[in-house]
């Protein structure tokens, strides 16, 4: 005769598919259900070119796809604040500089990785939109400083908050511990290119 405790155990066993209950944790997800587009791409390459080691695609194709999703998220966040990605890059460099939010054009060049001609054009366009101001550089009679305007600061702050919301959504499916582990792995991968 079954006792209430035995019936409860039977219910757990039936629900989990084994007699281990929850001690072993949830059942492993179906590997077919967790396949993404990169898995299908790799499978096709392995079938068509079994002579090649396509293992790098496991990581880098996913990084590439994620970069496209991030680019879309960035554009959405910036468009909501009437900014182009390049405008955000310049304004955020000035914002990160701290009070009084100003840098020389050469420092902006090193932070945004564009040519001096491109930077001059960008500063002109941002100044025309009242997002930055040109000021004389007190340390260099021929030099100028680029300063973030109040309008520019409000715009970049709003866009940055929007960007963080978009990025949190992109990372929503992984735990904080996994995010930290992933950040460490990506740092190791990117570091040789940043030196």
Report what the structure shows:
- This protein has 195 residues and is mainly α.
- The chain has helices spanning 4-16, 37-48, 56-79, 85-96, 105-112, 116-128, 150-170, 176-194, and strands at 102-103, 132-136, 144-148.
- The protein contains eight helices and three strands; from the N terminus they run ααααβααββαα.
- The chain is elongated, with a radius of gyration of 26 Å.
- 63% of the residues lie in helices and 6% in strands.
- β2 and β3 form a beta hairpin.
- α3 crosses α7, α4 (85-96) crosses α7 and α5 packs across α6 (116-128).
- The chain has a domain at 85-153: Arc Repressor Mutant, subunit A (Orthogonal Bundle), CATH 1.10.10.
- It has a three-stranded antiparallel sheet with strand order 1-3-2.
- The model is unreliable at 1-26 (pLDDT under 50).
Helix and strand arrangement:
Elements: H1 4-16, H2 37-48, H3 56-79, H4 85-96, E1 102-103, H5 105-112, H6 116-128, E2 132-136, E3 144-148, H7 150-170, H8 176-194
Antiparallel strand pairs: 1-3, 2-3
Helix pairs in contact: 3-7, 4-7, 5-6
Uncertain segments: 1-26
Give me the side-by-side strand order of the main sheet: 1-3-2
**CATH fold field value of the domain at 85-153:** Arc Repressor Mutant, subunit A
- Compute the number of helices: 8
CATH class of the domain at 85-153: Mainly Alpha
Classify the beta-strand content into a percent band.
5-15%
Describe the biggest sheet?
3 strands, antiparallel
Instruction: State the separation between the terminal residues, measured CA to CA.
Output: 73 Å
Shape: elongated
Second-tier CATH architecture of the domain at 85-153: Orthogonal Bundle
Coarse structural class: mainly alpha
Overall pLDDT:
85
Give a count of the beta strands, DSSP E runs of length 2 or more.
Answer: 3
Helix content: 55-70%
CATH superfamily of the domain at 85-153: Winged helix-like DNA-binding domain superfamily/Winged helix DNA-binding domain
Write down the Rg.
26 Å
């Amino acid at each position: 005769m079954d006792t209430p405790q035995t019936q409860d155990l039977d219910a757990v066993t039936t629900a989990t598919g084994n007699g281990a209950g929850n001690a072993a944790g949830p059942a492993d997800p179906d590997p077919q259900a967790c396949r993404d587009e990169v898995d299908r791409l790799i499978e096709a390459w392995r079938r068509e070119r079994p002579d090649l080691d396509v293992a790098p695609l496991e990581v880098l194709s996913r990084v590439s796809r994620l970069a496209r999703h991030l680019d879309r998220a960035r554009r959405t966040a910036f468009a909501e604040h009437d900014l182009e990605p390049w405008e955000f890059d310049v304004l955020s460099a000035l914002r990160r500089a701290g009070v009084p939010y100003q840098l020389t054009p050469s420092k902006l060049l090193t932070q945004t990785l564009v040519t001096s001609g491109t930077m001059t054009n960008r500063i002109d366009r941002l100044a025309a939109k009242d997002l930055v101001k040109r000021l004389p550089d007190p340390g260099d009679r021929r030099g100028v400083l680029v300063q973030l305007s109040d309008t520019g600061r409000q715009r970049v702050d709003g866009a940055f908050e929007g960007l963080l919301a978009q990025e949190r959504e992109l990372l929503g499916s992984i735990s904080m511990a996994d995010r930290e582990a992933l950040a460490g792995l990506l740092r190791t991968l990117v570091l040789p290119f940043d030196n």
